[in-house]
């Protein structure tokens, strides 16, 4: 699949979810498929520095749960010019009940 756009080092391949604060993409990074969560600045009048701690907390939880069934391996959490990102292992099956 061809990338729809680039976000830093990430080639965004497909939007796979969205919520109040940002979007979740299937992306390519360093030769592997990853899940990339983005938190956009300025949403709901949140300040730029208020959004990063949410992703950092999520990253810390994923680090703690690393290796446990159903939890993706976290790769990185950082700030880009346009948003904060959390990249993690792309899991293959949905946890939603059909």
Task: Kindly list the characteristics that best describe this protein.
alpha+beta, 6 strands, globular
Oligomer: single chain
Main β sheet profile: 6 strands, antiparallel
Q: Which class of secondary structure composition applies to the elements? A: alpha+beta
How does the overall form come out from the CA principal axes? globular
What share of the residues does DSSP label as strand, in percent? 35-45%
How helix-rich are the residues, as a percent range?
A: 10-25%
Q: Which radius of gyration do the C-alpha atoms yield? A: 13 Å
Topology record:
Blueprint: E1 5-7, E2 10-18, E3 22-29, E4 32-40, H1 48-64, E5 74-79, E6 83-89
Antiparallel strand pairs: 1-2, 2-3, 3-4, 4-6, 5-6
Structure description:
- The chain is an alpha+beta fold.
- 17% of the residues lie in helices and 43% in strands.
- It has a 6-stranded antiparallel β-sheet, with helices on one face.
- The longest helix is centred in the middle third of the chain and has 17 residues, at 48-64.
- The two termini are 27 Å apart.
């Amino acid at each position: 699949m061809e990338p729809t756009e680039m976000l830093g080092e990430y080639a965004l391949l497909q939007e796979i979810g969205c919520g109040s604060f940002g979007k979740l993409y299937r992306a390519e990074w360093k030769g592997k498929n990853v899940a990339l969560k983005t938190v956009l600045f300025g949403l709901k009048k949140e300040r730029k520095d208020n959004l990063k701690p949410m992703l950092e907390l999520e990253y810390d939880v994923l680090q703690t749960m690393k290796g446990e069934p159903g939890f993706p391996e976290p790769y990185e959490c950082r700030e880009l010019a346009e948003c904060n990102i959390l990249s993690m292992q792309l899991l293959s099956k949905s946890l939603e009940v059909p």
